[in-house]
Amino acid sequence: MKKLSAYTILSLLSISLLTFSCIDEHFFGKSSLKEIRYFTVPGQLGNTQIVEDSLLIRLSVGSRVDISQLAADSIGLSSYARVTPAVGEPQDFNQPVIYQVEAEDGSIVSYQVFISKQSENQQLENSGFDDWYTPEGKNYEEPGKDENTIWASGNAGVVTLGEANVEKFEVAPGDFAARLITRDLGPLAQLVRQRMAAGSMFTGKFVLDISNPLDSPKFGIAFSGKPKSFTVSYSYSPGEVYRNGQGQILEKEDQADIYLLLENRSGSEVKRIGTGWLRSGEAISEFREVTVPIIYGTIPSDSPSYWFPANGQFGSENDEVTHLSLVFASSAEGANFEGGVNSTLIINSVQLNY
Question: What are the residues facing 152 on neighbouring strands?
Fold first, then answer.
């Protein structure tokens, strides 16, 4: 068969692109898509739950938020769709509020938006890690009932080179926990200096960034409480062989990392309001409950260096809290692609204490 020249191929591509660029945007008719894809309000706590089948939107705000004059600060829609009321228009959410979405073709659907207030003593949803779901198109599970969960993990990144390292673990019939494992991803991952992948689970979202993996986790959820401490039930088994991202064996012992950060993100710079940190390499075969105090304001100068925020900015205990980040990792140096092979951290539950 005759091979096409490079010139011929480029010519065909140019003709194809020109043809598609000349097609009217309504060639296939006006769009009938009319979904609300995200919906947020100021003072929101946790993530928004959008139930598409029944056109319901549910979310929570802090106890001090005035929901009688509250406006959405962001609404994501299908292409070419529009919504009424619009972003920035105050509504009384003491009762469900109807948001109408009109598609480009004129068809309309009505969403009911329910907003509830949470108490001052907020707890985290699924803090017992009994609920798990399978993301669409994936073959691994994530903590939470669905994609609206406040919990995320690094599974989406790890499975590009190996198997998931955050998984459901059955403690007893009907009682589950989260098992985090540091995996050796092998020679292929070693080529990009990422041979070791610590199991990590946190409040927030994971958006895979292959060019900069460390930027994939988006830590933190909206939160306004001020707990005095948190209690975690966990077990830990540090791996015996400690490797770095290049596959070299290092004379180091692995440690689990468990920490809670309270922040104020309302200004141009993020301020650390509260810090609670547990880093330990102790092997714990049975679940142990440990209570970690939360220090408000500036932490003592002799604290471990990893306790300090990267930007050096601390707030005071009187400052408002807007976000909470709670992080669990099976290897404390996981961000540097280091850890003990098969180090295993199992989180049974976590509780905020007021």
Answer: 202
Return the structure tokens found at 181: 């494992």
Mode of pairing for the β-strands spanning 36-40 and 323-329: unpaired
CA 130 to CA 42: how far, in whole Å? 30
Place of tokens 């939470």: 144
Residue reference for tokens 């972003």: 87
- Rounded distance, CA 170 to CA 49, Å? 27
Cβ contact 331:254 at 8 Å: yes
Give the H or E element holding residue 347.
Answer: strand 344-353
- How many CB atoms within 10 Å of residue 228? 13
Mean pLDDT, the chain, integer = 91
Tokens of 107: 């068809």
How many angstroms separate the CA atoms of 148 and 51, rounded?
10
DSSP H helices, the chain, are: 6-22, 155-158, 187-190
- Token digits of residue 337: 């692609």
Give the start-end residues of each E strand in 52-198. Answer: 56-61, 74-77, 82-84, 97-102, 108-117, 132-133, 142-143, 151-153, 166-172, 175-181, 183-184, 196-197
Read off the DSSP letter of residue 244. -
| Residue range 280-309, pLDDT digits in tens | 999 999 999 999 999 999 999 999 999 999
pLDDT per position as a tens digit, 127-140: 999 999 999 999 99
The total number of residues written for the chain in this structure:
354
Average pLDDT of the residues in 226-235: 98
Candidates 122, 167, 91; CA nearest to 352 is 122
Sorted by sequence, the CB contacts under 8 Å of residue 262 that are 6+ apart come out as 223, 226, 272, 273, 274, 275, 294, 296, 321, 323, 324
Q: Is 201 helix (H, G, I), strand (E, B) or coil?
A: strand
pTM summary value: 0.78
Other residues' Cβ atoms within 10 Å of the Cβ of residue 121: 12
Q: Give the integer Cα–Cα distance in Å for 107 and 100.
A: 10
Domains recognised in the chain with CATH numbers: 36-117 (2.60.40.2340), 132-353 (2.60.120.890)
Confidence band (pLDDT; 50, 70, 90) for 344? very high
